[in-house]
Amino acid sequence: MNALYSWLQDAVNVADLNDYLYWFELADIRNGGENLDRIYATLNDAIDLHAFAQAHQITIEVKTSPNVDLHAQYDPNNHIIWINTVWLEKYQPFIGDTDALNLHLAHEIYHVIEENGTWYDGLKYKIRHAISEVSALYFSQKQTNLPFHPKLVEYAIGLEEEKYSKDDLVSYLRERTKDYEIYRNTKK
Predict the structure, then answer these.
(1) What average pLDDT does the chain have?
(2) Which of 5, 125, 170, 180 could form a disulfide with 11 if both were Cys (CB 3.0 to 4.6 A apart)?
(3) How many structural domains are present in the chain?
C-alpha cells in the first residue's frame, strides 16, 4: 500500500494525497473545502469501536450480502451493523484482517453517531450525504490509524481486478488537481 500511495501521489502530483482524496470527494458541493476543514477539526477522538457497539446495544454481523457492491450497512431499526464478507476478503490482502473489519465497522459506527445530530443536518440532502460519507471515511481512517485514505484500498482492489488501468486512475484523479491547489494555496 505504501508503494501505491507513493506512486499515486507522484503521478497525480499533489503535495498531500490523503488531503486531496478527501477534498476530491467534496469538490462538487458548495463550500466543499470549508466543509472538509470542519470535518478535520471535529473527528479526531479515538473510541473503542466494539465497546461503543456494545454500549449502544448494536449487534455486529459479518455475512455475505446478495448486493456485492455494498460494503457494510447500519440498520437503525434493528440495531445491527453488518459487514459484507466479500469486501472484507478484498481488503484483507492490503490492510490485514483486523483493520479490514475495523475500517468497515468504524465507518458504520460513524453513521450511528450521526443519529445524535451533526453540524450538517440542516443542509440539502446531496450536500449532507457527501459530507456524511467523507466524515465516515475520515473517522474510519483515524479509528484504525491507517496512514492513507481508505479509498486507496479501493483503488488497489480496482487495479488488481483490472477494472481500470493505472493510467485511467491517474487521469481520473488529475481532473481536479488545479482546483485543489488553488484552494489549498488560498488557505495558507
Answers:
(1) 91
(2) 170
(3) 1
Measured CA to CA in angstroms, residue 71 lies from 44, 65, 107, 133, 184 at distances of 23, 9, 10, 13, 32
Q: Which structural domain range is residue 56 located in?
A: 2-165
| Global pTM value | 0.91
Name the 3-class secondary structure at 38: helix
Q: In what order do the strands lie in the sheet with 72-75?
A: 59-63, 80-84, 72-75
Question: 24-33, 50-59, 102-111: which range is least confident on average?
Answer: 24-33
> Is residue 35 a contact partner of residue 120, using CB atoms and an 8 Å limit?
yes
* DSSP states along 95-148: H-HHHHHHHHHHHHHHHHHHTT--TTTTS-HHHHHHHHHHHHHHHHHHHHT-SS
Q: Does the residue 188 lie in any domain?
A: no
Position 133 in a domain:
yes
Domain for residue 182, yes or no? no
Q: Is residue 43 part of a domain?
A: yes
Q: Quick: pLDDT tens for 44-66.
A: 888 999 999 999 999 999 999 88
